[in-house]
Request: fold
Amino acid sequence: MGKHNIEKWSFGYEMLRKFTGIWHNLFYYKHIYVLHEENIPKDEQYIITPVHQNALMDAMAILLKMKKQPVFLARSDIFRKNLIARFLYFIKILPIYRIRDGYATLKKNEEIFGKTMDVLTNKNGLVILPEGRHAHLRKLKNLKKGVARLAFQAAEKQNFSKDIKIIPAGLDYSDYSKIQQDLIINYGEPISLAKYYDLYKSHPNKAIVEVVRELSDAMKKQMIHIGDDENYEIYNDLRQLFEKYITVNMDLNPRDPAQRLEAQQKFIKLLEEYLHTDKEKAREVEEKLHDYNRILQRYKLRNWLIDKRLMSFPGFLWRMIVFLLFSPLFIYGFINNILPYKISFDLANKIKDKTFHSSFNFVISLLLFPLFHLIQTGIFYLFVRQPWYTLVYFISLPLTGLFAFRYYILFKKFRARWRYTKLNHRKTPEIKKLQDLHRFFISLTARIISGKKN
Reply:
């Protein structure tokens, strides 16, 4: 598989995709929800345009939850070394050349355009990240015109006889960097390029601008978009800290990812109206959020603890017994998996740009865990010389590793609940303030949703 036949189905690539998908879909993320997948055409030419917030993980989200083998466009500077370029072509990524790469390189786009035509007519799908740059911000940045320009050129090459659909895709990460988090992939209704063909024939630039505008509006509907830069932290903290209350107050189901997303989108619009009608209210909310987060951080607490009942001593005791009963399985999983986990985590954290942490952690862990597991299995076989025992041991490694990680998270939550209970019994003044602030924010979100200003 290379650039010349990148649009063709590849068995080798599919095997790599399946292997990567197992790690991505079953281990790296806890839950992945794909909403409105039916919006991806089955037998038409189409371009998927996902939001770009989390570097490589955005592309992985689209690629590893699709049944087809889409082709991606990426900036040309990562193709400079031949060996890397060959690998990128193998994993179905094409370069796109920009003026900043040198005016002479723009001629190479003609060849790339020819390949994108092959991809589109093959109906496997083209994926373009139209923002052009990523950031850990829940907002849509200004879109580049390249996606619309390329789509129109492809239509023109076919004498405008074929429609090309552009599918907006939103991505929502419960946490950008941590593993075993939730991810929502939300596909919007396809935008038909054909309705702009007449305008493009007479005013091409105007048609391109119109498509970009419609695409921008459509992408915002598939994601959490916070357009208020001045008060961004207020929006982000409130919708994240009090997600459950917001969803319930809107008579939506907090267990349904689609309804949770809908509730947050609606709340952000209501909050925008609330903050813009009273600037003093915005500053008051900001100060109270600062105090709330400060107390949480000082006592190493999490927001969800405030909702929980205080733990009784019998409750503490039976939970400790359960943890002790399962501790041998935790120790087994921990010992067999701690090295690849620690190495991949530490290497990723050495990257200065935090927006790349998750991407590096994913790639390094994808390589290290299977490598360590194979080495460990080989050593195990040398000692036992029993193929079936060895197979059972090999299968147990990733499964018990996942168990150990979740055990560790549950134990941390258990320990936090017990610490929070003790702080309450001691009647710590700042814990009382934390609870008062919690009630204030619950009341505030309810008032905002109901439309009351005071």
Observations:
- DSSP finds 15 helices and eight strands in the chain.
- The longest strand covers residues 164-173.
